Amino acid sequence: MSTTSNLASRMRQATRGSGLEQGLRVIGLGSCGTVFEIPGTELAFKKGTSETGIWKDFTLTNKVHNAITDVRTILQEAFPTSTIPKTPLCHNYHPVHDEIFWSDKLQRFPAVHRTKQPLFTVDRILPLPQKTREGLIEMYFNEDEEFQQEAKDSQDNKDCLVRIYLGERESERQQFDVYDTLRNFPLRLNMMEDLEFEVSELANEMAIGLAILHWQAQVDGMDVEFVLGSSATWNRERPRGYEDISAPPHKVETIIIKHRAVHFWILDFDKANTIELTKDDVHTKLVPSFLGNDPYYPRPQADEELWDEFCSVYLKASDVILRAKRADQQVMSLPRRFLDEVLRVSRMNENWNEDDNIVFAN
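The structure corresponding to this sequence follows.
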């Protein structure tokens, strides 16, 4: 899906002065770090409090990005009607002791964030289109017209990424929730159905993404996020470089970034770990990471038909990846083992009650 955007004008600003020379703006907050927009560019800074965590996020994000790049073609051939999920590319990493970087950039951070902490430069995941954001506000925010207009005008709400929770429906209490921010907006299964989302296609694309994580990148996916966001697109499908050397020099625009395409993005790998392709790691890493995460993935108790479709696509994508790696039969059996174990543990825990199992420290 594509839509017009003001990115073109902001990119043009970069021709008048680098975004690195302008003030930085917070566009995301999380347990791993704070994300800052670099104005006039398609980049962001992600700044962490833990050097171990932010370095892991930097390296594993790139590991997954590279894995997606490596298998994109064969998976697109296997799933021609699906869009392969994306992971942003991380560029430069700057530790606390990088004095050259900090002497030049520290004063460009907002005052409350003007501390030296490890960070990296990363491709920015652009927010969802304006019409989508306004539709969410009209549907789920306070119905007061003045309140809704303030929400639509809010800069924070323009930084909208949506968390896709295919494994959970709203509880009776949550159905009466009134939202006040679009940052990390939680879109649960019944909400997607109400909005007439292509839920089946989202499940398919999530299954492909998870298969890439497990069997190409060999990352367990602990606490990762699956979100809907945008990316800049070319002004035509396959732009060619201008090559007429006989013409006099003149203005050439082979790309005008004026549209956004909506994609599934996988991000936040600071708590994830690498795996070996063994039965032990399926049981001790993959299954706990799947069941311990937020309810991104379909679950049979939320929608059994959607779960079955998710499993079918996950197994097919896993098979494509592992065959390309020339995996032996024991490794080829691991994706099915993973799903069987997820189902077994899920059913075992169906009657588990959180309130009955809370233990307070003395």
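The longest strand covers residues 225-233.
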